[in-house]
Structures are given as C-alpha cells and as structure tokens.
Amino acid sequence: FPANQMATEQRMLKSWVPYAEDCPFPIQNLPFGVFSTEGKEPRCGSAIGEYVIDLSKLESVLPEETKGVFNSGELNGFMSMGNKIWSKTRLALQTFFSKANESAPLAAKDKQTQYLIKMIDVTMHVPARIGDYTDFYSSRNHAENVGIMFRGKENALKPNWLHLPVGYHGRASSIVISGTDIRRPRGQILQDNKMPPAFKRSERMDFELEMAFFVGPGNKLGDPISIEEAHDNIFGLVLMNDWSARDIQKWEYVPLGPFLAKNLGTTISPWIVTMDALNPFRTPNEPQEPTPLPYLQDPKLSAYDIKLQVGITGSDSKQESIVSNSNAKYLYWSFTQQLAHHSISGCNMRPGDLLGSGTISGKQADEFGSMLELSW
C-alpha cells in the first residue's frame, strides 16, 4: 500500500492556524461541507482547527477550474469535476495554510476574518443535493449475526451474499445532518401472531453504525463504472446512522425488504472527508472467498482503518455510555466494489449520490454496530 508511505510526510505538515494536538480538523484533513452564517446564504467550505474556511473567499489561491463553484449551497458542482481537481484543490489549501506560508499577504491577521469563521458561529447543512441514496449490506459479521438470529447458523448468509454487494434503494429526501431531531415513527406492528397488526408508535428504534460515500462525476446511462474507474468516482466519506424501527420492519419487510422502518430518517455527518485524506489509513481488505467475478476484482482492493464508536445518552443522563467500538476495516465488500456493482447494470450514477455501507460490525460483542445485535 504505497499510500501509507505518505503518512510520515503528512504528519510532519504544520499549519499557521493554531489547534490542539487531538483536533479532528488538522491540516491533514481539510474536509468539505456546506455552511451558512446569520443573514447569508449557504456556501461551500472546509475546516481547519476551530474554524470553517469560506472557500468562496479564497478563489485567488484555489485552482482556476473551481472559480465560482464554491459560491453554491451544494458541493455537486465540485464533485462533478473529478479526482484531479479535488486533489489539486486540497493541495492548494494545504499549501496556503501551511506554516511555511504564514507570511503570505492573505494570511495576515487582518485578512483572516474574510475567510476564517469560528465553527460556533456557523450552521451546517446537508453537503450536497442528494439525488439518489442506496444502502448496502457489506459487513459479513453483521450479515451473519442477523442471519443467525432469523435463519439459524447453517443458513446465516443467503447464497448470493459472498458473490455480490447486496443493497437496496433508500429515501434521499429524509437524509439529514447530525443534530437534526428524528421523530419516533408510527406504523403497523404485529404484537401477536394470532391478532391483526396494531397501528402504534415504534417501541424498538435502533441505530445502524455505517459509513457512506458521495459519488463524483458518475457515468452515462448504459455505461457502467469499471472497478478501476470507481476509485476516481468516490469523492469522500461521511459517518452515517440509518435509523431503523425494528418492530415496524419485522412486519413489513417480506417480501421486498424494509420500507417505512427506514425512510423515517438517515443521519450523516456534515463534513465529507476526502479519499486523499484517508489514503494513509488504507489497510488490507478482508479476504474474499470465493473470488469475486471479474468486474468486482479490484487490483487496488483495500479497506480503511477508521475507528468507529457509538455512545448513547439517555433522556435522564448527563453522560453518554459507549456501547460499540467498531472499525470501517470490518467491511467485506469495499466502497469501490459497491460502486462498480451498483452501475454494472448501466445505472447512471450522478454527482452527489450517496451510497451507505450498511451496518459495520466486528466479531466481538462490543464491536456490534446495532442494538439489534448488542441486545441479542
């Protein structure tokens, strides 16, 4: 994994913007998102330290190709430009904010207020116009756990699971960012097999610990994205919680899968971390046996060593309880395989489409990514 060789050089990079050692937004990150300030329209930004970077105010240091694209309240235009422009833009930001550039005129203290805004003074928004949303089922540990619950150990995985990334189409309109309230849904719930279903509020609301990626340039209808091209069509990753009403789901999911149990809301983090920023965290993917069909064989196959944690704070609690410690590397099917499979039929993927990984669970009980498993 040659990308890991960049890790040392990246760690050495320092910024003239001060921030703590454990800050989630160092110069090595520089994620992308959409924000607004009081009285002004949403626009595109990045983040460093405790500040949001107003990219619309830094056009003079960014690639000429991006001129005007960051004035928008969505990142779709930038996503459509492709990997070379994304990397070029990130490098331009790293160069501008690097310690070696602190004497630049635009880095002077009296100029910084033009483009650096304290995070506490901004409102974050869904970072893209999400035209379509698909959720996969790519963690073998999770799929086996659920399969054992409902079908027994001998039939834990359906025959197709080890041959393709299983997925279903979700509801894009109810995707919201972290901090947005999700209302507990009502629906049909079967409480007694001998009685008709009751219409009532769900009593078994669950989280699903996932990651998701935004699609870049995409493809034309009928022209699939190859596994090699998939790498350049993934803009970046967000955290995702695909809320699930398990009691509603149990009654409705046969034969076509979940519907109302899932469309009530899906939460994502507001900042999209680029694949360039995540390159140093690439790690070998889980062994895939049997060998996937040729269109899913990725010569650069890898997972990402990203630690994931879930904490729950009860309505009467002041402190959260950590219930899960998982990792993105526990995915069996990679992000590139998910994208290549989604488009192999000729389905046209568009900039801003969102693809979720499915619940990510490890082998140990404290690594399970849902209450369905944790309470098993």
Walk me through the structure.
With 376 residues, the chain is α+β, with helices and mostly antiparallel strands. Helices cover 20% and strands 22% of the residues. The protein contains eleven helices and 21 strands. The chain has helices at 6-12, 76-79, 83-97, 109-112, 140-151, 227-230, 246-252, 260-263, 275-278, 335-343, 371-374, and strands spanning 32-36, 43-48, 51-54, 116-118, 123-125, 133-136, 167-169, 175-177, 186-189, 198-201, 205-206, 209-215, 234-242, 244-245, 266-268, 273-274, 282-283, 303-304, 307-312, 321-327, 354-356. The strands form six sheets. Strands 6, 7, 8, 12, 13, 15, 16 and 21 form an eight-stranded mixed beta sheet that branches. A five-stranded antiparallel beta sheet has the order 4-3-2-1-5, with no helix packed on it. Strand 2 and strand 3 (51-54) form a beta hairpin. It starts with 5 loop residues before the first helix and ends with a helix. The model has no long low-confidence stretch (mean pLDDT 95).
Write the layout of secondary structure elements.
Layout: H1 6-12, E1 32-36, E2 43-48, E3 51-54, H2 76-79, H3 83-97, H4 109-112, E4 116-118, E5 123-125, E6 133-136, H5 140-151, E7 167-169, E8 175-177, E9 186-189, E10 198-201, E11 205-206, E12 209-215, H6 227-230, E13 234-242, E14 244-245, H7 246-252, H8 260-263, E15 266-268, E16 273-274, H9 275-278, E17 282-283, E18 303-304, E19 307-312, E20 321-327, H10 335-343, E21 354-356, H11 371-374
Parallel strand pairs: 6-21, 8-15
Antiparallel strand pairs: 1-2, 1-5, 2-3, 3-4, 6-7, 9-10, 11-14, 12-13, 12-21, 13-15, 13-16, 17-18, 19-20
